[in-house]
């Protein structure tokens, strides 16, 4: 009798809520066992893990503070200890706090760089070491980026810088970790609303693209799965935004009105 092959295991950061949860559920539906990372959303993460486990047994939730280097370095080994192996990492968690050229500070930049850039690099490093230790042929890292990098505006300066650094790291890591680890970016457009947008404004802004619609959570999750499973892709980014990166926006979506001009009080 042939030995039973365990399901592929993926660590998804920030998977308790919002887009990370949608990615985790889509991967579980596709047969991936999911390690659901969270920082503060413990109850939501446990629910996501339970929903994933209903699709593929063994999925579980794991806490880590991605701004703390020791916590990040310990995360993947903890997942391996609990689930036996990790085959891929999806870096979905992001710090997204507003600043601009006038309010910028070292503290704001440091806050964004730690979680949005440093943590994904350390997790790629950890995945490489783990795959090498067990003699696995290849794994993958998918980094969630942002169409803002190809359509820049002056808002969210530190966030944008941290994602730009991560986009550059895609290329460097793809070169440094090949052939054992592939590294791919996925850059959504406006995908989910927030407290800064009414539902009506979100729907109107969502339509501001050449295709008449921006990305949905399902679109982004589908792109992440494609990046994980297509073994010929590395060192590049898939833009999943309805073509929003082809247009010029003077402000971030959260500071625009549906007509495209800055909202009052911006």
What are the main properties of this structure?
globular; Rossmann fold; seven-stranded parallel sheet; alpha/beta; 266 residues; 7 helices
Structure, explained:
The chain is α/β, with parallel strands linked by helices and 266 residues long. The longest helix has 29 residues, at 106-134. The protein has one domain (9-200, 214-246): 3-Layer(aba) Sandwich (Rossmann fold), CATH 3.40.50.720. The chain is built from seven helices and seven strands. It has helices at residues 18-29, 42-53, 69-83, 106-134, 157-177, 199-206, 217-229, and strands at residues 9-12, 33-38, 60-63, 88-91, 139-144, 181-188, 236-240. Helix 1 packs across helix 7 and helix 4 (106-134) packs parallel to helix 5 (157-177). 41% of the residues lie in helices and 14% in strands. It is globular and about 50 Å long.
How many DSSP-defined strands? Answer: 7
Low-confidence stretches: 260-266
Q: Kindly state the percentage of residues in helix.
A: 40-55%
Mean pLDDT: 92
Reported for the largest beta sheet, the result is: 7 strands, parallel
Calculate the terminal CA-CA distance, rounded to whole Å: 66 Å
Structural class: alpha/beta
Cross-sheet strand order for the largest sheet: 3-2-1-4-5-6-7
Broad CATH class: Alpha Beta
Instruction: Supply the number of helical segments.
Output: 7
- Count of individual domains: 1
The CATH superfamily bears the name: NAD(P)-binding Rossmann-like Domain
The value of Rg in angstroms is 18 Å
Q: How would you sum up the global shape?
A: globular
